[in-house]
Every structure is written in structure tokens, then in C-alpha cells.
Amino acid sequence: MSIPPKHFLNNSDTLVVDSLRGLATLNNQLALDEENKVVYVTSQNRSKVALICGGGSGHEPAHAGYVGDGILAAAVCGSVFASPNASQVRRGIDLVENEKGTVIIVKNYTGDILNFGLAKEQYAAQHPDKADRVRFVIVGDDVAVGKTQGKIVGRRGLAGTVLVYKIAGALAKRGASLDEVYSTAEWVASNVGTIGVGLEHCHVPGTAANESHLGPSEIEIGMGIHNEPGHRRISPVPPLKDLLPQLVEFLTVTTDPERSFLPFKNDGSDRVVLLVNNLGGVSELELPVVVSEARRALEAKGVKIERIVSGTFMTSLNMPGFSITTLLLPAEAGPSIPESSLILSLLDEPANTPGWKWSAGAVPPAEDQIASGAKRQESAVAKADLVSIRAEDAQAFNAAVERACNALIVAEPEITRMDNIAGDGDCGLTLKAGASAVLKGVQDGRISGQDVVRSVIAVAQVAEEEMGGTSGALYSIFFSALAQGLQAHHAGAETLSPALWAAALSSALEKLYTYTRARPPSRTLVDPLTTFVEAFAAAKGANFAEAAKAAGEAALKTRDLEAKAGRSAYVEGDRLRQERVPDPGAWGVKAILEGLLGQ
Q1: Which long-range contacts (CB under 8 A, 24 or more apart) does 465-468 make?
Q2: Which is more confident, 241 or 567?
Q3: Quick one: what percent of the chain has pLDDT higher than 90?
Q4: The pLDDT of residue 573
Q5: Catalytic residue among 63, 203, 226, 231
Q6: Is the pLDDT of residue 569 over 90?
Q7: Theoretical Cys-Cys bridge with 599: which of 37, 52, 323, 594, CB 3.0 to 4.6 Å?
Q8: 67 by DSSP, 3-state: which?
């Protein structure tokens, strides 16, 4: 895969300043020195220690998103992936001048260390009486780079840096001394580890389109936040339940001389804070799954999780990836080791900044406490409540249902392709999910030609529960109405006849019409369904093949129709006419009918 070189911006040259201006608009605590790209708190309490940080842009909300009450006093921003210069940093130091002193926190990258360090030394040279009131903390929490490889440059600074900001910032807000804030920040920085994984590199605004760095089935473990290559690639992409134990091993291993960065005991006594970070392009649907699997992987190693924080904390622009960070809490306090209760209380304290995310401030509940435990109350339908009607040939009925399901499964890629153009892309997978569940129902005997009414009700339940969405509701209503029609028109018959099928289908269509405004020609599944039911009913069920053929033709004709209902109604009309793609829902009905027929 490759990341599209498209971005929402005015001009790549002004992107950083435009973004900082927007942040200051959003957060009325802040002011912006545009010339130096410094975001700072306007009403700083100058009786307390100030924290200042910064680095290249492109990692938002880091760093400026953490400026505000409870974390940072200022952030100095460079261009995308480029450190700010020393004069910018000096301006930041001047803006947060205070009575107690300032702690500068930077990620372990050469440009950041040199420029922030130079600014610190220049400040000390110009203010010798205050030289000891500016402290410098470097965070290198990456565990992907081995000790030999990083012997000179050290470990890269990643999302663990944000935990240093938060804990030290909360301590400063409490009024702690410069030495206390500095030593706590140093301790957190030395006990935090981070490992990242990505599906692809990011794209930097204003640069040429990237070549795809990874194959369609590859992921890369240990990628940096500036498009640096990772530790290794894996193919195919493993499920998260298999991937997270590998990532956790990087964090907790003590037997690998290259990666024994944190002093885990791995004896069941280790306690951590877990931070799960979106590197920029992971959906909010996927990230909580990472949380769950990270928790399981850590607990499988006997690690107790005291807090979980999850969200977008430090990104690499639009990189489709995530990182997990563990802060190993102290087993006991010492002269330079804070109490774990202090660390947790500082982490839990609210921070009035847009970058810091909500957290529960408590130990996560045990897995067996997460589910409500309430058993689903099945509405038991006694056999006596339903009319029992057999198919004329129960074995042939079962075989036809299986053919229809398999036809839908085979058609899924084509239906998905159509829906990517004419809808929201989920129709093929929705129908496939329903077909797979119906197949299972046939295999376990819940759907059988021996009891057609009960089988039709089972199909309606599958549509409701396994398909969901609009399609699931439409199919469920139709099959529920079909069950009603079979019972209403059976006239004492014990075996289904074509005429009874025809009457029941007609009544089901009429019932469906009460819940949808779609009528042929509408470019929806109603087009082929109506064509089939009307043709089948006109011949009292004697012409299934002809009715199915007419329905197939109606489905094909939807490619030339204006969309009047369904998701296609929201798609620009000229595009539909240009692509000439049939309606995916209609194509699904065609596949079902042709499968029933055996074509």
C-alpha cells in the first residue's frame, strides 16, 4: 500500500504556522509567537517550575497540544520533522521565565539535542546567576533499536515522552521544587519503553509521492516517527492477538543483551502504566482492539496494569500505525526513586490541554467483569405456535439454500467493487456475513426443508443479527413477512406448493413496501426483488426460472438508472452514469435467485 500525497492545507510552506494559529484559536490559554513558532501559556504562574519542550512538527498533538494548565508552559516548533533552531528555543526559555526554574524536555534526536542544548548553554552564558535554573531531560524510549546499533546515538524518543511531560507537569503544578521536578522527569524517562508498528510510512506535505515501502501483506515493527525503517518486517499481517505478544516481548525482555532496556523482573511482581498511541492513521474502531490485546499480552507475562491511557498522543503525520508504551512502576521508593502512588496520582490529575486524553484514573477492570454477564433472553417459540410446512423436496430445498449462499460468497468481491463506487463499500461483506451464517444454520439443522416456516424465521434472525445495517433490516423484514405469509395462506396444507410460495412472496413484498419508499425503478434491491415476485406470482409459481431471469435483467438495468433511494442516492449522478455500475444490493438479489435456480 502507499499513502496518497494529498493533504488539507493552504500551502505546505505555511502549514506549521497555520496549524499553530488554529491551536491558539482553539485554546484561549495560549498565545503564539509566530516568528519563532513558540506556543506558550499567557497567564503562567511564575511561582512554579515551567516545563518547555519541542521539536519538529508532524507529531501532533505533540508538542504544542500539551501546552496548558497542568503540563507544559511552552512548546517550540520546527518545520515538519526538523528541529527548531537555537534562537527559537531561547525565545521559548525567555517567555517562560519564572522564579523557580525551567525544565527542558526533548526527544533523543540529534537536531533537538543540539539546538535545545545550545539554547540552554547560551542562556546560561548570558545569565550566569541563573545557569543552574535550567535543566535538560532527554527521553529515549524506543526499544526497537538494539544497544549495539544505538551505541553512539542512543534510543529514539517516541510516545513515552508524553508520559514524562504529563507526570513532571503535574508535579510542577503542585508547586514542587526544580530539583524534584527534574529528578522525577529523569526517573520517568529512564523507566519508559515504546515499540511501534506500521502498515506503511507517512507522506510529508510538499514532497513528491512516495513509493510504497511495504508490500500489501507486510507490516514493519520498530518504525520511527520520521519514516525511519524499523527493526524487521512481517508478512502476512498477523492478527493483533498474535502481533501484540511480539511487541510486548520487546518491552519486557531481560535475556536479550541487545534489548534489556527496562528492569522487568518477569516474576509476577511487575506493575506498569500502559499507553497505546495512534501514530496518525489508525481508526478509532481499531485502536481499542489494540488496547485489549496489549492488555492480554502483558497480563499473560504476569504484568499488572495499573493504568491504561489510549489515544492520539504522538503521531507521524498520517502514518497507519500504532505504538505501545510501558512505564515500569517502582517496586519501592528510594532516595531518587519516587513512590508509585505519587506517579499514578500525577498521571491521574486532570490537565487542561487539548492533547492529553481522558483516562479512567483507575486499575482497568478484570476481563471477566467487562461483559455484563446478562444472558440473552431468547424468545422461545413453541412448535405449536407455528404452522409446520414441509418443502416438496426437503433435500432439494436445503441444496438450493446452500447454492444461494455460496453464490453470494463468490460474488462478494464484485459486489464490494460496485459498492465502493456506488455506496459505502460494505454491501458485499454484509451479504457474505449473512450467507455464511445461513450456511451454518443449514449445517446444524436450524434451517431445513422439513420445517420451512421456522427456517424462514431463522433466516430473518440471521439477517438482523449477522448482517445489520440497512440491508440486514430489509432482508429481515422481508423474511419475517414471508413467514407470516406462508402461515396466512397455507389453508391447511402440510407441503409447500409453488402457488403458496407465490402468495406468500406477494404478501411479503407488500409488507416490505410499508417500510421503504423505494419502488421500481429506484436503483435498489427492490428493483429485481419486485420484478421476481410479480412475475412469479403472475404465473402462480409455475415459472421460477423465467422470473429469476427477469430479476437478473432488472438488476443489470440498475446501472443506467438514477439513484432515488439507498446509499447511491448520495453519490454524484454523473459518476454513476460514467461508471455504469449496477446497484450492489440489486446484484446481491440476482446472485441469490440464480443460486437458488442452480445457474
Answers
A1: 465/437, 466/433, 466/434, 466/436, 466/437, 467/430, 467/431, 467/433, 467/434, 468/430
A2: 241
A3: 82
A4: 57
A5: 226
A6: no
A7: 594
A8: strand
Exposure letters 162-184 (e unless 16+ CB within 10 A, then b) = bbbbbbbbbbbbeebebebbbbb
176, amino acid identity: A
Kind and range of the H or E run holding 323? strand 321-328
Q: Is residue 245 scored above 80 in pLDDT?
A: yes
At 119, which amino acid appears?
A
3-state secondary structure 473-494: HHHHHHHHHHHHHHHHCCCCCC
Query: Residue 371 pLDDT > 80, yes or no?
Result: no
- The C-alpha cell 548553554 sits at 121
Name which of 592, 590, 594, 587 is nearest 422 in CA terms: 587
At 227 the pLDDT is: 86
Are 75 and 99 within 8 A, CB to CB?
no
DSSP state of 337: B
Provide the residue count of the chain: 599
The continuous run of DSSP H or E covering 249 comes out as helix 240-252
The DSSP H or E segment spanning 321 is strand 321-328
CA dihedral 381, 384, 386, 390 (to 10 degrees): 120
- The rounded distance, in Å, linking the Cα atoms of 11 and 335 is 52
Pair 405, 475: CB distance under 8 Å: no
Closest alpha carbon to 452 in 496, 488, 403: 496
Decide: residue 138, CB within 10 A, 0-12 exposed, 13-18 middle, 19+ buried: buried
CA–CA gap between residue 209 and residue 290 (Å, rounded): 29
Q: Quick check: is 226 catalytic? A: yes
* DSSP code string of 424-477: -S-HHHHHHHHHHHHHHHHHTTSS-TTSHHHHHHHHHHHIIIII-HHHHHHHHH
Distance CA 221, CA 212 (A): 16
Average pLDDT of the residues in 476-493:
94
Q: How many contiguous H segments (helices) and E segments (strands) does the chain have?
A: 18, 12
Residues 6+ apart with CB under 8 A from 189: 105, 137, 138, 139, 140, 141, 160, 161, 164
User: DSSP label at 211?
Assistant: P
What pLDDT, on a 0 to 100 scale, did the predictor assign at position 192?
A: 98
Model's pTM, two decimal places? 0.78
DSSP 534: H
> Quick one: pLDDT at residue 31?
97
Q: Which of 135, 117, 259, 111 is nearest to 186 (CA)?
A: 135
CA 251 to CA 473: how far, in whole Å?
A: 46
Q: Which residues contact 271 (CB under 8 A, 6 or more apart)?
A: 303, 304, 305, 306, 328, 329, 331, 340
Instruction: Give the Å distances, CA to CA, from 573 to 16, 428, 528, 556, 579.
Output: 38, 22, 21, 17, 10
